[in-house]
Write a structure and sequence with these properties.
Length: about 240
């Protein structure tokens, strides 16, 4: 989308964004344990961090959300004992996720899964600054928590969110695609980070009641896809000499 068109739509987009925030219900984060251990085999320490989609907004319990499902599926796919922890909060940008981790440092991990980006788009963070924030986050995870590999989830197809009106949905979707392209280009330059390829079609039935956050079918798909990525493309190349 051209900058000229985006500027021309500016007043309408602002009005739609304000109205949408007022209209959409504020869904809580999923309840339940935010750490656990599952499976048998060599130990794989897993950290999940990020925004509302990491925190499980859109479902009732963490068992229906991303983190617990990811840990269970990864334990089976990798033949590993997965010790997992979740540190996430609704509304966080990528940069704010790093601030949260610094203020509430989690345990060391072998693999970190980062779920951020939608709020970068909402807050109009340029894609190059979002990539810089991802790099800073990955570097901190490596240095502070001894994380060997950081997996980034892509931004969802915002252009398909039923809770957003047009043209806001179209413009935000174009921004999300631009952020994803920049992230893919950046991850290709490093061997210690990766971006998962996901292509789940979204409809109202698969989304939460607000038409903006994931529903259980989306979390289930994302957990399976990320688990397969880690089990096949990440875990085999990691040092498995980790504490028991």
């Amino acid at each position: 989308m051209s900058l000229t068109l985006k500027l021309a739509l500016g007043p309408l987009l602002v009005a739609q964004a304000v109205a949408t925030r007022a209209r959409l219900p504020r869904l809580p984060e999923a309840g339940g344990a935010r750490r656990g251990e599952t499976g048998h085999g060599p130990l794989l320490r897993l950290l999940i961090a990020g925004d509302s989609s990491a925190a499980g907004v859109g479902v009732v319990t963490q068992r229906q959300a991303l983190a617990a499902q990811l840990a269970a599926r990864l334990a089976k796919a990798a033949g590993a004992r997965v010790r997992w922890q979740l540190l996430a909060r609704s509304g966080l940008t990528t940069a704010q996720t790093l601030q949260l981790l610094r203020s509430e440092p989690p345990d060391q991990a072998d693999v970190a899964v980062v779920v951020t980006g939608v709020n970068d788009v909402v807050d109009q963070v340029p894609s190059h600054r979002a990539v810089a924030a991802r790099a800073a986050l990955a570097n901190w995870l490596r240095n502070a928590l001894a994380v060997q590999h950081v997996v980034f989830a892509p931004l969802p197809p915002i252009h398909a969110f039923p809770g957003l009106p047009q043209p806001l949905r179209w413009v935000a979707g174009a921004d999300a695609r631009r952020h994803n392209a920049a992230m893919v280009d950046w991850t290709a330059t490093r061997g210690d980070v990766s971006c998962v390829d996901m292509h789940m079609p979204l409809d109202r039935a698969s989304m939460a009641s607000d038409g903006f956050h994931p529903g259980e079918p989306v979390y289930r798909y994302c957990a399976a896809t990320i688990a397969q990525h880690i089990a096949t493309a990440v875990w085999p190349g990691l040092s498995q000499e980790t504490p028991s």
